[in-house]
Design brief:
single chain; alpha/beta; Rossmann fold; five-stranded parallel β-sheet; two-stranded antiparallel ribbon; 47% helix; globular
């Protein structure tokens, strides 16, 4: 396939961050495809909300409907098979001896980006968009900017094609992510992010909070709740 300079592949999990990144890409690229991964995650409900979010984004703006292309979901069960983590096992979320929370799945983002790069190559795409962030996160080393830039270099060398990994949220916190959603798509996109996206590590879609659905106690829920509170405070101050 001919390489398109105006196409992007978004790593789209169905979570808050990747949904905002998808809207960000739809504003900037003429053709936007999405990729998700079924790796035996405990919160597999995130896979179930993805189609609704994609269809809702189509309805928000006519140009987004025209730009949003194919979705790809890859099965990576081997990742769960080799991962003793709270995201791939029914176990309590806690800090591990490594100093990282046991929700860290070693190699996950490295594997995701390599598969995304391989698919992008075959789809004639050289721009990847991902929601990694080193401002408001749990200390995951595969979310750091240095890691992403290293993978970008490796993909470009290994594919013999210039590949770019865009990380719009790398330097912003969760409050700014809510603000970015409203900046890109107004109140309609902000409402979609709150109502439809899923971040809770336990996969809880039964409890509705001001910031969305979730257990309210896992690290992902706490980050999202605290970010939403800061976002509201900043809105009121301005």
């Amino acid at each position: 396939m001919t390489v398109s300079p105006d196409a992007a592949l978004v790593l789209f999990s169905g979570g808050q961050d990747s949904s905002v990144c998808l809207a960000w890409a739809l504003e900037r690229f003429a053709r936007v495809e999405t990729i998700g991964f079924d790796y035996g995650q405990r919160h597999a409900v995130e896979l179930a909300v993805r189609p609704r979010i994609r269809e809702s984004l189509r309805g928000l703006q006519p140009e987004w409907a025209a730009r949003l292309g194919d979705d790809h979901v890859l099965k990576l069960e081997t990742l769960a098979a080799i991962s003793e983590t709270a995201l791939t096992r029914d176990m309590q979320i806690e800090m591990a001896g490594s100093g990282l929370p046991n929700t860290f799945v070693p190699g996950r983002n490295l594997i995701f980006l390599n598969y995304a790069g391989a698919l992008a190559y075959r789809r004639g795409i050289r721009d990847l968009v991902a929601g990694m962030c080193e401002t408001d996160y749990s200390g995951y080393p595969d979310c750091r900017n240095d890691t992403i830039r290293a993978v970008q270099s490796a993909l470009s060398l290994g594919m013999d094609r210039d590949m770019t990994i865009h990380t719009p949220l790398m330097r912003v916190d969760k409050a700014a992510t809510f603000a970015l959603a409203r900046e890109i798509g107004g109140q309609a996109l902000l409402d979609l992010v709150i109502e439809a996206t899923h971040s809770c590590y336990l996969g809880d879609r039964n409890h509705r909070h001001d910031w969305g659905y979730g257990c309210g106690t896992c690290p992902a829920c706490r980050l999202r709740a605290e970010g939403f509170d800061r976002f509201l405070q900043e809105v009121h101050e301005h």
